[in-house]
Amino acid sequence: MQQTMQTILLVEDSGDDAVLVKRAFRNANLANPIEVVTDGDRAVAYLSGEGEYVDRDRFPLPILMLLDLKLPRRSGFEVLEWLRAQPGIGRMRVVVLTSSKESADIDRAHEIGANSYLVKPVGLEQLIEMVRTLNLYWLVMSEPPRLDG
User: Fold this and answer.
1) Starting from the edge strand earliest in sequence, which strands make up the sheet with 116-119, in order?
2) Is 76 in contact with 56 (CB distance < 8 Å)?
């Protein structure tokens, strides 16, 4: 099993949470580049390759998207619904990474196509362990779908 250095897209409006996730990746010795967008509209623009994200060499399609639900402009649910309707990239792996433990949110995310639903842990050590597990399953062991985008 060989780890790829493909990009991960983190859709997170909290600057503190984005810094913690990036720190957890570094502390877990994972070198995948992480692109961060701070709202749902930017996530759609990134995935569409529009506006400032038109250069696919600079902003490649991610191998995995980590998606918060509570976002400005367009919610994580709306981003996920949009993504699943897109030909070519609609099969992208999406892990919801959010603070909501609400069963309605969990159910809805899975119903509209989330591959996994993770609740953000409180401490950095727990987040590092979550990142290691996420890496092992989604980036090392699991075979990604082909994306045409």
Assistant:
1) 34-37, 8-11, 64-67, 93-98, 116-119
2) no
The boundaries of the domain holding residue 20 are 8-141
pLDDT in tens, 63-79: 999 999 999 999 999 99
Number of domains making up the chain: 1
Q: Which residue's structure tokens are 């996920």?
A: 80
Does residue 14 fall inside a structural domain?
yes
d(CA 50, CA 8) in angstroms, rounded, equals 18
CA–CA separation, 28 and 4 (whole Å): 15
User: pLDDT tens digits, residue range 15-62?
Assistant: 999 999 999 988 888 888 999 999 999 999 999 999 999 999 999 999
Q: What is the DSSP letter of 93?
A: E
Stated pTM of the model = 0.91
> Is residue 2 domain-resident?
no
Instruction: Classify each residue of 4-24 as buried b or exposed e, where b means 16 or more C-beta atoms within 10 Å of its C-beta.
Output: eeebbbbbbbeeebbebbbeb
Residue 146 located in a structural domain: no
Query: Any idea what the CATH number is for the domain that residue 46 is in?
Result: 3.40.50.2300
